[in-house]
Amino acid sequence: MTPTIGYVSTHSEAKGGHVVLEAFAKLLTDHPNAHLVMVGSDPVAHAVELPPGAVTWTGRVDRRRLLDELWPTIDVLALPTWCDSGPPYVVLEALQRGVPVVTSDILWLDEGLTGAGVRRVSVGAPRVRDALLELLDRDTYAEASRAAVDLWRTRYSMDVLADLVGETYREALTAGPARPRTGRRG
Asked: Quick one: pLDDT at residue 164?
């Protein structure tokens, strides 16, 4: 397997782009033919030495190109972010396509982002590299890819979300009308 690591963000600094570059440089020791695709960010100065051609910088792309051309080429997504909350949209896109994810273990990311298709790690190149290596293992990758799709289907798909929204509305309707607040406004 010649792995392709993907990073998708227009906010490289805040979402760990430099961490991904450093982790990728360390990953090349074990996977010298690996490739990194940096989507959404223009090339940035970085302190790590990378072989010519090992990184492709695509800059900002439209959604259709990302979905049709770039996602099919990515084996694992790395997004060691400091500034996302809930489930980041790009992570959901990866899971839906069977792309395992390495992301942050920060508290404000959805706690449901767990399981065999997701590795949550402390933001730092050594931990990101180790998680990437684990997911790229031949015996682990197929299960992680299946688990990524299963996680998306059972927790984040429109069918699941529609049921949750419907349930919330039914509960609100059975609770009756809200009572007006009493008291003086200050």
From this structure: 61
CA-to-CA distance for 14 and 100, rounded, in angstroms?
21
Enter the tokens of residue 2.
């010649």
Angstrom distance (rounded) from CA 183 to CA 97: 53
For 143-170, what is each residue's pLDDT tens digit? 999 999 999 999 888 776 666 666 666 7
Give the residues across from 156 on adjacent strands.
none
Fold of 4-174: Rossmann fold (3.40.50)
76 bridge partner residues: 5
| Alpha carbon distance 158, 106 (integer Å) | 25
Cβ contacts of residue 56 below 8 Å, gap of 6+?
35, 36, 37, 38
For residues 44-68, average pLDDT: 89
pLDDT of residue 46 exceeding 90, the answer is no
For residue 1, CA distances in Å to 33, 44, 75, 175 come to 9, 28, 10, 56
Which region holds residue 109: left if phi is over 0, alpha if psi is between -120 and 50, else beta?
beta
Q: Taking the mean position of all CA atoms in its chain, how far away is CA 58?
A: 18
Residue 165 CA neighbour count, 13 Å, CB half: 7
What percent of the chain shows pLDDT beyond 70? 88
